[in-house]
Amino acid sequence: MPAAPGDREPDFLRRLGLLDTSFLVIGAVVGSGIFMTPGLIAAGLPSPGLLLAAWLAGGLITLCGALSFAELGAMYPEAGGQYVYVREAYGRGAAFLFGWAFFGFIMCGGLAALAVAFAEFLGSLAPALSTGHVLVRAELFGLSFSLSAGQIVAALAILLLTLVNSFGIRSGATVQNVLTVVRLGLVAALIGLGVLFGTKAGASNFAPLFPPGFSFPAVLKPFGLALVAVFWTYDGWYSVNCTAGEVRDPGRTIPRGLTIGVLAVTAIYVLVNLVYLLALPLAELRGVVRVGELAASALFGGGGAALFAALIMVSVFGCLDGNLIFGPRVFYAMGRDGCFFRAMGRLGRRSRVPNAALWGQAAWSSVLCLSGTYESLYEYMVFALLVFFAATGLAVFVLRRRRPGAVRPYKTWGYPAVPIVFIAACLAVFVSMVVAAPLRALAGLGLLLAGVPVYVLWRRRAPRRA
């Protein structure tokens, strides 16, 4: 007998418009990276012009990826993003390995890192809540363990935002939009005041813009190493693809949201680095981790550092919320395919969001926060993410060949050059990271391959979906 209307499984509600998708891209990308990595990136570059060029090049490469993912997102407007594209292009086994790495290490490890960063900056304003305030020290089986107030704050931040997002996509998107507007306003104030106060005093910091006798082949190696860090600072731009099942008019909104979001992030990153260079000469920026606070102190005095710490805290909190939104949509798609816990493949009847996936993500991320192992796990698995990025870019070519008659509301602008640039950049960064840290790459490969027996076991327990 046909199921009664009340017995049908709920589906996603398409409530995200162009503003929501653009803000989600910005919100998922702009966190602490732009305020903490420029000094490290500047350490290997010989001139201000090359520093600005590295951030611009990173934005252009990211835009190539966004334009490629836009075709796939418009073609498959459903929850899951990369997991769906890898599954359609290469099969369920490859898709599971992506999901295995994404849940176990990349997404949840990234959330834990963001939450702990939020706690660190909160701790600079309230020391009792900092990661330096250790509450418990213990040793078990020869291994030392410590728990700080900051780790507890980090776990509570994840749980709080998970609760907000469990009420529905509109609830999560509204919080994300508000936080993004606040961040954009603060960043705009920083840029405006920085240009106003720093133009006269800092104009000499740009001379010379490029080193004497400049030739690109000579700086290719340091520029390429700088792009590695820049590339990761742009991470999170694919968030809209994961939430495609909740986007209105996805054939038009997804490409536009990706493009607007990535262009906005690129402009923010280049302009913020311009302010840093107006505040301090390149020599004083090199190697500095908390470069944003140093530049704010130089421009606005001692009070500027405290205000900047507050800006970073708000920025990281918003970035945490943006990343927390899109990850569970990947786990939902895995659950629907029988490749993950079945409960994660269901939506709440009232909320119409994957609540089990949300809370499963929150639980594992909180464990990583409290255990302090998130950083090493994340570093091991970033190599795999680069390979999957390249494979997803290649999926544009694979699916055009295998499914030429499929409906494509949007086709990648600049095809085939644009996807090729993205694929080549991902592989180049991957090779450079493997050469720089072969043992870490080997450990990452081991963690990835550990998913193979898990996949075999899961497929035996769950019948294959039609």
Q: Which features does this protein show?
A:
466 residues, Amino acid/polyamine transporter I, two-stranded antiparallel sheet, 3% strand, disordered N terminus
Q: What features would you describe in this structure?
A:
The protein is built from 19 helices and 2 strands. The chain is an all-alpha fold. It has one domain (14-461): Amino acid/polyamine transporter I, CATH 1.20.1740. A two-stranded antiparallel sheet has the order 1-2. The radius of gyration is 22 Å and the shape is globular. The two termini are 20 Å apart. Residues 1-6 have low confidence and may be disordered.
Mean pLDDT: 86
Instruction: Provide the spatial order of strands within the biggest beta sheet.
Output: 1-2
Question: For the CA atoms, what is the radius of gyration?
Answer: 22 Å
Quick one: how many beta strands?
Answer: 2
Largest sheet: 2 strands, antiparallel
Structural class: mainly alpha
Strand content: under 5%
For the record, the CATH architecture stands as: Up-down Bundle
> Can you identify the CATH class?
Mainly Alpha
CATH topology term: Amino acid/polyamine transporter I
Contiguous uncertain segments of 5+ residues: 1-6
- The total count of helices amounts to 19
Ends apart, CA distance between termini: 20 Å
